[in-house]
């Protein structure tokens, strides 16, 4: 007789929090670039053992409008996204986001829009699509 694996009850699951953020950069960014920036910053700040505790995941990303300044020749690319992490590690994840300042020699600015308990409320309150 084949037995199915039992699903972990909600009381035993890890609690998650969703961080809504906005990224402004001078070069265009892709999802892979954003993931590598966050992963590299977490490994640099906390090491492999510490970064494994955070359970980081980029849930969703949205491309926003691009600001073009023809006089200075600067293009600002904006993205909004949602990052998932464990509830107990929210302060550590916020510290990781603050340490990211450049990517491939170009400045990058992360701005935290807010923290939510669900993806739906993060989109509704902070991303505002």
What does this structure look like?
The protein has 129 residues and is of the alpha+beta class. It has 3 helices and 6 strands. The chain has helices at residues 31-54, 90-99, 119-127, and strands at residues 16-25, 57-63, 67-69, 74-86, 102-103, 106-116. Strands 1, 2, 3, 4, 5 and 6 form a 6-stranded antiparallel beta sheet that branches. The model has no long low-confidence stretch (mean pLDDT 88).
Task: Give a quick set of tags describing it.
alpha+beta, globular, Pop5/Rpp14/Rnp2-like, EC 3.1.26.5, cytoplasm
Detail the topology: elements first, then pairings:
Layout (H helix, E strand, L loop, with lengths): L15 E10 L5 H24 L2 E7 L3 E3 L4 E13 L3 H10 L2 E2 L2 E11 L2 H9 L2
Antiparallel strand pairs: 1-4, 1-6, 2-4, 3-4, 5-6
Helix pairs in contact: 1-2
Number of helices: 3
Q: Could you tell me the mean pLDDT?
A: 88
Q: Measured on Cα atoms, how large is the radius of gyration?
A: 17 Å
What's the helix-strand series? EHEEEHEEH
Tally of DSSP β-strands: 6
Residue share in helices?
25-40%
Instruction: Name the poorly predicted regions.
Output: none
Shape call: globular
Largest sheet: 6 strands, antiparallel
The quaternary state of the protein chains shown equals single chain
Proportion of strand residues: 35-45%
How far apart are the termini? 49 Å
User: Which structural category do the helix and sheet elements fall into?
Assistant: alpha+beta
């Amino acid at each position: 007789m084949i037995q199915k694996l039992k699903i972990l009850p909600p009381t035993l699951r890890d609690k998650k929090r969703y961080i809504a953020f906005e990224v402004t950069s001078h070069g265009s960014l892709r999802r892979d670039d954003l993931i590598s920036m966050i992963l590299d910053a977490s490994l640099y700040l906390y090491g492999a053992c510490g970064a494994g505790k955070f359970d980081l995941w980029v849930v969703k990303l949205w491309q926003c409008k691009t600001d073009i300044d023809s006089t200075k020749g600067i293009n600002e690319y904006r993205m909004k996204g949602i990052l998932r992490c464990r509830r107990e590690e929210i302060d550590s994840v916020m510290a990781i986001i603050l340490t990211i300042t450049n990517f491939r020699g170009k400045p990058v600015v992360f701005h935290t829009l807010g923290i939510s308990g669900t993806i739906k409320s993060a989109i509704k309150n902070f991303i505002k699509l």
